[in-house]
Specification:
With 371 residues, the protein is mainly α. The chain has 14 helices and 9 strands. A hairpin with a 4-residue loop joins strand 1 and strand 2. Helix 9 crosses helix 13.
Length: 371
């Protein structure tokens, strides 16, 4: 569902309303009535004229408005990474389209008013949203790869992260000495785990950076995403880490200063799609600079009351939908590049345990021989 297209005839980006107006159709008529008035010849001309503003594919046709969707354009052959490609074979990461004209909740009403005022102050626009979509599309094209990690790699990272919790914290500071084996209840496995942590300190630190949180729902999402995209082309989201982190920070700033909270939990709605879409748009306009985005937000707040609330009826984009899941996947790939001894945690612990026992037996044998 493309909200805007690039017209080769008019040499600019247009939505359905603008295109119909330029074709001479009376704006006073209902948009669906105007669309239905288009002749077969005009529809063919539009089909050959318009181009997807994101991926540049050709052959677009106009689709009438419905209760849930505004009038838009449909293309058959979007590029694989295009946000408008909704084919079943497409497993790539997408942003989530957001209706800035929505007023079904407190936060959507507030954001809609801010968007409307921002448009009237020429701080944001549908054109800016299209440019942002293109920016993310180009980033995907430049950083694509075929899904090449397994669920075993996820388990490896979880084991690495949890390894330091598997033994007493102070125990890792005590280096193994063969003489300790003379203790009556010496724990070989504990010693092996301690040595593993010592030998893999850098790797464990990288693995710890994989997860901002490790609740079961998030891990299950990551596991399913890895399973569903095996051998499919995806892109490395680590290239968008700064925009993502800044958007999260700015979304938090917005929710706190506008008291956008869930009524039941009283948690701030930082991950709300409409808040994320608005935050990302303001940040994109100023090259992801939070301070500049805040200044523009203040300009919007202090601007006069909106003249036409309908000007906010545009489709925005939360470009970081499911981003935390994909970010974990990207960091798992980084861990794998440093995992020189394989990714089976249990095998490595058992190998270290066997080596320790062999060393002790060898030392014992040498001591007896010297006697």
């Amino acid at each position: 569902m493309a909200i805007t297209v690039y017209s080769q005839t008019f040499q600019r980006e247009l939505d359905v309303e603008q295109l119909l107006s330029l074709l001479g159709y009376n704006n006073e008529l209902d948009i669906n009535a105007r669309i239905k008035k288009l002749s077969k010849q005009e529809n063919n001309k539009i089909y050959n004229d318009v181009i997807c503003p994101i991926c540049g594919c050709k052959g677009g046709s106009i689709v009438t408005a419905s209760i849930s969707k505004q009038a838009h354009f449909r293309f058959k052959d979007h590029n694989y990474f295009c946000d408008y490609n909704f084919s079943k074979e497409n497993k790539s990461q997408k942003g989530k389209s957001v209706d800035f004209g929505d007023e079904r909740s407190n936060e959507t009403k507030i954001i809609r008013e801010l968007v409307t005022k921002g448009i009237e102050q020429k701080i944001i626009s549908q054109q800016l949203i299209s440019e942002m979509r293109k920016y993310f599309y180009d980033t995907k094209i430049q950083n694509q790869y075929k899904m090449d990690i397994s669920t075993e790699a996820l388990d490896w990272c979880i084991n690495l992260r949890n390894s330091k919790y598997s033994i007493a914290a102070n125990f890792t500071d005590i280096k193994f000495n063969p003489v300790y084996t003379q203790l009556p209840n010496f724990d070989w496995k504990l010693a092996a785990k301690s040595l593993f942590i010592e030998e893999n300190a850098n790797l464990i630190e990288i693995a710890n950076n994989c997860f901002l949180r490790t609740d079961k729902n998030l891990i299950d999402k990551v596991r399913k995403k890895i399973q569903d995209t095996q051998e499919y082309v995806v892109f490395d989201v680590s290239k968008l880490e700064i925009p993502y982190k800044n958007t999260i920070k700015f979304a938090q700033f917005i929710t706190v200063n506008f008291s956008l909270q869930d009524k039941k939990t009283e948690y701030y709605l930082i991950n709300s799609d409409i808040v994320m879409a608005f935050a990302a748009l303001l940040l994109y306009a100023v090259n992801w600079n939070i301070e500049f985005a805040i200044l523009n937000l203040i300009k919007i707040v202090q601007s006069p009351q909106s003249v036409d609330m309908n000007s906010g009826n545009i489709i925005g984009l939360n470009p970081f939908y499911d981003f935390e899941v994909w970010s974990i996947i990207a960091k798992i790939r980084e861990v794998l590049t440093h995992s020189k001894n394989g990714i089976n945690y249990q095998d490595q612990i058992e190998l270290i345990e066997a080596q320790l026992k062999n060393e002790c037996e060898l030392r014992k044998s040498l001591n007896q021989h010297n006697k």
